[in-house]
Protein 1
Amino acid sequence: MQGFGLCLPTVQRSLFLLLGTTLTLAACSDDSTSADDSTSADDSTVTSSSTDTSASSSVSAGGAGGTGGAGGTVTSTSTASTSSISTSQGGSGATTTMTTGGGTGGEFVAPALLSETGLYEADMTTITEGVLPFAPEHALWSDTAVKQRWIKLPAGSQIDTSEMDYWVYPVGTKLFKEFSRDGVRVETRLLQKIEEGEWFLRAFQWNEEQTDAEARPDGVFDASGTEHDIPSENQCINCHDKMPDIALGFTALQLSHDGEGVTLQQLIDEDRLSDPPAGPFTIPGTDTERAALGYLHANCGNCHQPRSFVANMVDMYLWLPTGDLGDVASTPTVLTSVGQRAAQTYFPGGDGGGGETSFDTRIVAGDPDSSIVALRMTTRETGQAMPPVGSELIDDEGASAVRQWIAEMPAP
Ligand code: HEC
Ligand code: HEC
């Protein structure tokens, strides 16, 4: 098991350092088969710290993304009990601080128990009034966990949707996500916007009696006798800081459905959006195309989008901006992957192994077996698996959706 950043090749590791981020990189171990969500106290770690802003701006200038975010100044501090990261997003000019400890000195007191967060009534099974369920149309694969999500928007508040793909949530917003495995609630996660640009992130592990859940800032490996890992707060940050205002699934595109829970249409009708769109958005294409594009958006797009620092390493976007949904051929997903040469030649099984087979195209129309995008979804090899964090098992259904899409693509 390992942290985010994983067994990054040295060049990438130094890029992280150039960006001025303090990252805790768990050491690479050969027997590790997955890039999972968890960390444990006995992992050996490499921690490095830098606040060299001139280095980060020069990386930004040379970056592929161009729209900012990735090259922002990043400073971090870490002590035994608290850690926070503040990032100034080049794109929006916003500054985001993530608090994972006891608060930053204001009135906010970090909850130690889920019962202190306002999600449930005292019985811990009835959801409090005003906390509303929602579901992204395309979910992140989390092994076999069943997930439920809720949002609490402060009364009378609006979400700033002046940038439709990068919403800015009102101060006081709380988002929750609960994970059950084998029918038992294992953990519930909280994202809470404490003040403009400052978020609190925490996971709570349910007790055996299912009467309350306790804060687990360091994560738990194989929690509650299941194979579900609770991520540490560094790992929360490493996924959630890919978006300027932290929330990943409560977005215009992901709420463009007429299923259960809060929808984009409902937010429009209830005047919850500062700049409401005319209506819900539609991913273009046939069912096969929409399934694949939606899957890639949800499972890969948070990293592979212009405002994530990953854009500085690979200029491939698997993310669907709401303004680019005219037809399949003009989505960034197709434009930056189909027939496009990869940043790195891909050697299945690792390049030290002397294997002769290698691939150099992200997606070869009609040929999933030669398409690096599909190949990296169906390996769990360290340093090759995509996504590199968040799950231990290959998502067979997701991988087949992407493979089928590629197989049906007319060869150029
Ligand atoms: C592997 C990447 C990853 C890690 C690690 C991760 N998250 Fe998330 N999280 C996501 C994605 C992607 C979504 C949206 C898709 C979904 O919910 O299926 C999400 C959704 C959420 C939501 C629902 C609101 C939203 O943003 O859509 C909450 C709450 C949340 N995460 C909290 C946390 C907390 C707290 C941690 C750490 C304990 C954490 N997450 C760790 C990727 C991650
Ligand atoms: C947590 C962030 C993250 C997520 C999520 C993620 N990736 Fe990546 N991806 C990276 C990074 C960092 C690199 C560059 C380093 C490397 O090649 O391993 C990368 C590289 C790649 C490459 C190589 C591109 C090239 O030009 O060499 C492919 C293909 C890829 N990812 C596909 C995917 C797919 C498909 C998904 C979703 C199933 C996904 N990624 C999800 C971070 C992520």
Protein 2
Amino acid sequence: MGGKLSSVQGEVIIELSGVGRNYVNGSNQVEAIKGIDLRITKGEFIGIMGPSASGKSTLINMIGCMDSPTSGEYRLKGVNIEGISGSEKASIRNKVFGFVFQAFHLLPELDVASNVALPLKYSKIPKKEWESMVKKALATVGLDELGSRYPDQLSGGQQQRVAIARALVNNPDVILADEPTGNLDSATGQSIMEELLRLKEVYQRTVIVITHDSKIAGYAERLIRLEDGRITEDMQLSITSKDDRLINPFQISGEEESDEYIL
Ligand SMILES: Nc1ncnc2c1ncn2[C@@H]1O[C@H](COP(=O)(O)OP(=O)(O)OP(=O)(O)O)[C@@H](O)[C@H]1O
Ligand SMILES: [Mg+2]
């Protein structure tokens, strides 16, 4: 089943065709991603699961233009990104993607508002607009009151919310999150997923989340499973209630109706 394209309707923003990523360390070669075909449509909420070293971070880093394929083609909003210069690529990365990481990556010497403003420094957005954009991003994650605190004065869940606000501040099309709940307890992790889900539902963002936790992955509407650098499962979940989200999504594939998901 690996490499089959989902038949979701809508504007395709991310399209990988035969994408591979080899790492070469001396005489050692690692084929981290092996000829992946993948289409992602605007507004999808996608979970990526798979064992350690299966290529999840490598894949999301290529999608986010932080890394480049060593084979195949990546078209972002219809543009072959390998055909453009490094500075153009950096500018596209800044405009199109917001990143959230497991370890939050907030700068301890900056207050919350300044942390959230960081991506704006690399954008062409005029400085006079920054304050209102930062306020709006913080309000979106329910932290409007905390702009002048410092990261070490916040809980882990609040720090991750600040990181989400930072990922959002530029109004990017796509939020990429690599194990965003990995450092949080289960209840806080679930509230972070609710937050990401809201970005999709209220603001029509495309959200891609890597997780090891099937409960967390249960928030996604489409689940992609990676194994040894290949997509081994790509399924659409028709889940409506929060309780349903908490079942193991990969158990569904072992049960009856194949029309539960689209391959
Ligand atoms: N910079 C690098 N140089 C060499 N090999 C690398 C590099 N980055 C990743 N790899 C290798 O590529 C493979 C995929 O790594 P990747 O980080 O994408 O896995 P992952 O699925 O995100 O794993 P985890 O769940 O542990 O985060 C692994 O075998 C890893 O050792
Ligand atoms: Mg990883």
